[in-house]
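Subgroup meeting minutes
Present: P.N., E.W., G.H.
Scribe: E.W.

1. P.N. recapped why we're keeping a running log of single-chain structure predictions: easier to compare across weeks, and new members can see raw inputs and outputs side by side.
2. G.H. added today's entry (277 aa).
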Amino acid sequence: MSPDLWFLLVLAIKMAVAAAFVVTASFVAERAGALVGAMVVTLPIGAGPAYILLAIDHGAAFIADSTVTSLASHAASGIFGMAYVVAAQRRSFAVTITAAVGTWIACALAIRAVTWSVPGAILLNVATYGACVPLAQRYLHVRMPVITRRWFDIPLRATLVAALVGTVVTLGDSVGPVLAGIFAVFPIVMLSIMLILHPRIGGAATAAIIANAMWGLVGFALAILTLHLAAVPFGAPLALASALAVSIVCNIIIFMLRRAGHAARTAALNSAASPGA
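Output recorded in log:
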């Protein structure tokens, strides 16, 4: 198979996988709430296929180099998400999306201008999510509105996500490790969720999903770090599997802790409201 046909085949698979996951995440969020939807959104749906493609084309050493910039660029995803969350409370859909994407581009360009080391990228993420996670707390709890699904919802959502994935991957093809690392962590899944759900359930409800995703993005950063550390000594396949496992385990822990905290708060409120309190 020629390199061009191989690239198109892998790209088609990536577009299909990302579309399936985003459509699933959007329906899960509508039915199960912002927290569950956020845990699905922050799985490595977009970056995973991107790194599989990079591993096939370039090998483990290239992956290890790319993940340094990916880790630094991942901080831009948190700022992107918070820009959306804040703007979505009062601004129109078009203004909110423009502000969020513009924020990501500005951050990504600034990150690209710096030669990052692993410790520097880690410190950048600690500073970014150390600020974003507390800021997101006030936006976590919004009731998902009841909506009526239309027959064209699934094909429309899948087409939108596939088009976004195809555009990003095509732009990121045939570039060096720095730009490849930036494109690999473009927040395409979060952007897709914003584009799909904001017009359907409103800015505040969609912002709640993104706000709930902040802790999941911390787990995603740990997954990128795992991929960097494991790529060369263990090879790309095992490193990719390990990174996926880290992301899934982190999200499960986050979900369980959040549910336990919610149950404790509910029990305390019920106890305070009881006649014997």
